[in-house]
Design a protein that fits this description.
This protein is mainly alpha-helical. The chain contains seven helices and no strands. It has one domain.
Length: 188
């Protein structure tokens, strides 16, 4: 049973700063949205709810039922089977939905690109910090009289920060290993 008297844990300051940074990233994304983008986001949000699907189903069933009932009762239906007006309306609505979804997705992709860029920058920074820590530990090991001095080639290699461009080049080179000759030749 959970302890109800326990205080909620307070996250460390670096976690709070990270949370604020992420919130700031999202706030900037919202603040930079045009009025048109906000309207599209709102419409997409409304149309993506289960209530919209239920309402749409009710409208379609009601439309078909009323037109079939009109035929059965001998009246002239507004949209006789095979329901060309319903089909046209559904096609037009589908076109608008596709455009709304693509517009929303494009805007969301911009936010995701910013997040990916931030992740890449943080990964590079972390790698540089790790290399610095390894270098400092190696220096401490060499300078400490209590520790036997020896050559550690792995630690020496880890103490050198990676060059991001050489990493990109290595990734590109391995991407084309085993690729068709025409593709690999086109990449160079």
């Amino acid at each position: 049973m959970p302890d109800l008297d326990a205080r909620p844990s307070i996250p460390p300051i670096q976690i709070e700063e990270t949370i604020r940074s992420i919130a700031r990233l999202h706030a900037e994304h919202r603040a930079n949205a045009t009025r048109h983008q906000l309207v599209v986001d709102r419409i997409t949000s409304l149309l993506s709810r289960p209530v919209f699907l239920a309402l749409l189903t009710i409208v379609v069933v009601g439309w078909v039922s009323s037109n079939v009932a009109a035929v059965a009762l001998g009246y002239r239906p507004l949209d006789p089977p095979p329901f060309p007006w319903l089909a046209g309306t559904a096609s037009l609505a589908s076109l608008y939905l596709v455009v709304l979804i693509l517009t929303t997705q494009r805007r969301d992709d911009r936010l995701n690109q910013r997040r990916e860029q931030l992740n890449l920058e943080l990964a590079i920074l972390s790698e540089q910090k790790t290399a610095k820590v390894v270098a400092l530990l190696e220096e401490l090991r060499r300078d400490s009289p209590a520790v036997r001095d020896r050559v550690d080639t792995l630690a020496d290699a880890m103490a050198t920060p990676a060059d991001p461009q050489s990493v990109i080049d290595a990734i590109e080179k391995t991407r084309y290993v085993g690729a068709p000759a025409s593709r690999a030749a086109g990449a160079s």
